[in-house]
Prior knowledge:
five-stranded parallel sheet
Amino acid sequence: MEKSRKIRVVVIDSQEVIRIGVKAALETGDRMEIIAAGATEDDALHLTNLHKPDVVLLGLNAPNNSALPARNLAVLDTIDHLVKFERTNVLVLSRLEQRGLLHSVLRAGAGGFMLKDEALNSSDVLAQAIENLVQKKNLPLSLALQDKLFLYEPEVEEMPRLTKRRIKMMQTIADNPHLTVAQIAEILGIAESTLRNNLSAISRTLATSSLSGALIECLRLGVVKIYR
Length: 228
């Protein structure tokens, strides 16, 4: 990319206040140009195909609803598509600090991962992360995460143990991300209450606070697969 040309950025986040904040943070300087903004994964795919940006800033949020596991899987598919087929760089912005989420988005192809508060509180930090991503320098990663998250391979002695039965439960959820817990229980032939009790136990074992976090951690550890 020519040094004289501004870095062209598409911003995707379901919260308008985040989109406005990112735009304000980046356009105070003369290095970045926000060429489009959207709210959904579909917007990310459409706007990237239309505008051919240098970077997509892809925001992740954590609404407390049953659709969250499905949305997280959709995000991973979106990142994979943006990188492989649209040939663009993806920088994920998130409020979550989960190790499983970090591993999952990086393995899907994201070029960096930053906490939203850090990115929005310092326009220089966010701008530098984007420049590093475009120039293929060091991995753009929030300073707050570097001491907390082991980036590439899990330590074997720390890998949690899940029974085959519970792995099957999580695999069924991964295979059917748009179904409710009740519908998953019906597929498995067990009571919904039994499934919910097991899912709570799985979350405790994996040290995650939600079903979504547990699913992503299972994907990271390789005990659950996504079959395309």
